[in-house]
Amino acid sequence: MDKEQLKENFASALKQENLKRTPQRFAILEELVSSDEHRECTDIYFALRNQGISVSRATVYRTMDILVKYDFARRLDIGDGIARYESKVGISHHDHLICLECGKIIEFLNRDIESLQQSICNDFDFDMIRHTHQIFGVCPDCKSK
Ligand SMILES: [Zn+2]
Ligand SMILES: [Zn+2]
Prior knowledge:
Elements: H1 3-16, H2 23-33, H3 41-50, H4 57-69, E1 73-77, E2 83-87, E3 95-99, E4 105-108, H5 111-123, E5 134-137, H6 140-143
Parallel strand pairs: 3-5
Antiparallel strand pairs: 1-2, 3-4
Bound molecules: zinc ion (2 copies).
């Protein structure tokens, strides 16, 4: 998806939510898609502030909700009560290994797991919309400490 198309899609999402198309909201979209990391709202807030974009924390939180709702972003719950977000724009599906020591998130895609999930759904005549698969443990760096 090119940048103009992306902006257009986001503009129509804002319209559906009866929200104004402010430069701040578009800056949040751009910040989201500029990185493939898994970041907290606070990280995105500070990234924007560092670029001299004045935006409130509340606007970041609310806009991230919209970005998740309209499939621009994925929200990750890694069990510490703080939501992380990653861009879904131009990013293919993957699952996560999460280090309980340092919070590092490692991405993986396993064809066998993907097809097993599909066959489970088939067994139950269940249409899969999405899935999350998270493995919690200790990463190599933390193991060697
Ligand atoms: Zn670790
Ligand atoms: Zn990810």
